[in-house]
Design goal:
By secondary structure, this protein is α+β, with helices and mostly antiparallel strands. It has four helices and six strands. A six-stranded mixed sheet has the order 1-2-3-4-5-6, sandwiched between helices. The chain is globular. The N terminus is likely disordered.
Length: 161
């Protein structure tokens, strides 16, 4: 039961992230505008995701070069039967974009979610990431802009009332 541990295609393997991938994942996060503190902190996050049965982080590994990452989490609906999957992060190395890496990573995330009973997938993307929006549309994701809003609250913010 579960998503496949690996998917392969043309010298690339989609596999679960390992703590030893932390430095490469940090580089990907940095490329996307999220600089990281250090590999040790990222390794802890990778382990946390690996220990959570409702979560998975996959990497695209081309002979030891990490070309991309997708992190997915499953959440049960409250208002109806079933669950939904959320792509929490999707990053493809600048040099590998447009080569099908992102599509294979999303397929792995969708497979993981489906294996856990999900009937819907969700992803959010910054308004300035127009290329990402087109990528998701081509994969059948519907743009919900104008139909719903996203609200955030930092729980560690001591200035809020």
């Amino acid at each position: 039961m579960g998503a496949p541990q690996t998917l392969t295609g043309e010298g690339m393997q989609i596999r679960l992230a390992r703590t030893t991938d932390a430095a490469a994942i940090n580089e990907l996060l940095h490329q996307l505008g999220y600089p990281q503190v250090g590999a040790a902190t990222t390794a802890i996050r990778i382990k946390t995701w690996g220990d959570d049965l409702s979560s998975a982080a996959y990497v695209a590994d081309a002979d030891g070069d990490i070309l991309g990452l997708v992190a997915v989490h499953v959440c049960p609906f409250f208002e109806r039967t079933g669950s939904w999957g959320r792509i929490v992060a999707l990053i493809v190395d600048d040099q590998a974009r447009g080569e099908g890496v992102g599509g294979q990573l999303v397929t792995a995330a969708e497979s993981f979610a489906t294996s856990r009973g999900c009937v819907r997938m969700e992803v959010t993307s910054g308004d300035h990431r127009r290329g990402a929006h087109e990528f998701y549309r081509r994969r059948g994701y519907l743009d919900q802009a104008g139909r719903s809003s996203r609200f955030l609250c930092d729980l560690d913010d001591t200035t809020r009332s």
